[in-house]
Design brief:
This protein is an all-alpha fold and 96 residues long. The chain is 72% helix and 0% strand. It holds the Pfam family DUF1244. This is DUF1244 domain-containing protein.
């Protein structure tokens, strides 16, 4: 295996792991790791564009979420708590 194949395998495992942890909200990921599933979808789409592959935002998100984003959101996304919103706001201040 070459480096690209190993990186691709690690990426697939990360996506699979996130798909089994639907209890982990995107805001939690943003607070703790400064990225979320939407970021992964954006990065995936950016990589496609570099290769000359046109990929919509929705198609990229479906690749990461394993289903249309609207479906995932309806099934798994909860309203952010005041504590989460506060922690996220504090995290954002560090980037300013």
């Amino acid at each position: 295996m070459n480096t690209t194949e190993l990186e691709a395998a690690a990426f697939r495992r990360l996506v699979q792991h996130l798909n089994t942890r639907t209890d982990v909200q995107n805001i939690d990921l943003m607070i703790l790791a400064d990225f979320c599933r939407n970021c992964l979808a954006d990065w995936y789409r950016d990589a496609a564009m570099v290769q000359g592959i046109e990929l919509s935002k929705d198609a990229a998100r479906e690749k990461i979420y394993g289903m249309p984003f609207s479906e995932w959101k309806a099934k798994y996304q909860r309203e952010a708590t005041p504590e989460q919103l506060s922690a996220y706001a504090e995290r954002q201040k560090k980037h300013d």
